[in-house]
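so im writing up the methods section and need the Nudix hydrolase domain-containing protein record in one place, dumping it here so i stop losing it
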Amino acid sequence: MSEDAAAEAHAVLEAADDNYDGKIISQAALPAQPGAFASRLRASLATWAGSGRVRGVWLKLGLDQAALIPLAVEQGFVFHHAERDYVMMTRWLPTDTPSTLPANASHQVGVGAFVVNSAGQVLVVQERSGVLRGRGVWKMPTGLVAAGEDLTEAAERELLEETGITARVESVLALRQAHGFAFGKSDLFVVLGMRPVPDVQVPVPCQSELEDARWVPLAEYTRQPFFAGMPLYSKLLQRCAAWAEGRYTGLKAERLDSSVTRQRSDLLLWGEDDDTLAEARAALQPAQVGSKAAGASGSGQGDGEAAAGPDAAGGSRL
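--- predicted struct ---
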């Protein structure tokens, strides 16, 4: 081997420093030949370990670099995560401390679109596949949030894809966390209160995903036998109904500018303060008093409607 070839074989791989005393090896600059890759990776690890400053090493390999994976494993790398077109591997260099490299993402995030129109009707669907297939259960449209997508955007997108309905998010009504889902991940499910824009729209169910989609009275949705006896669904549906009837505000969601290591904007969720809630309740009271008075002096059905509550009128009050 010539001196130039020997020097090349022992050259440290091109890598960038991360913010936690680690190295991110440049995928684009990796040698294509397995032998050269193995030699340079070995030399790089020895140099970085010898410096006493480098802790974690990140190595990203694409599909066309799959032949290099066994060579990285031989030098102590393990899998961190994989996507359709690459695998990420890591190596912890210090021998006297356990690895503190962050684990792969622990959660998937789903959204539920609770859509209510001005008539107090809820948009519901029946799934063509999944655990609810063939059970006759009407549910809110749901879906998973894509990488780089806000919760609000995901709910609006999934709703449009599944039902053809355009709507805008007004409030975050509830969050549910569960564990043991796909590939051992945990799951966050976020329910968002939405209004159709325009108000009058006819749902067109996506044939590949849904059996049907329709508008139904609020009570017809919340009182389905399937949900009975499950405290989580009972509480969730209570919050949804309260929002539809104007008795619950939920959390607001807004994208706001933020900056830590780079300029960006993030989605922030927050609840109303006591003063805002008090003003909202005060604004509702005159209308509610007037409604009760009209009911009592009307056709003689006021007492029956009051006893049955808003759900008995098909959820028409917001």
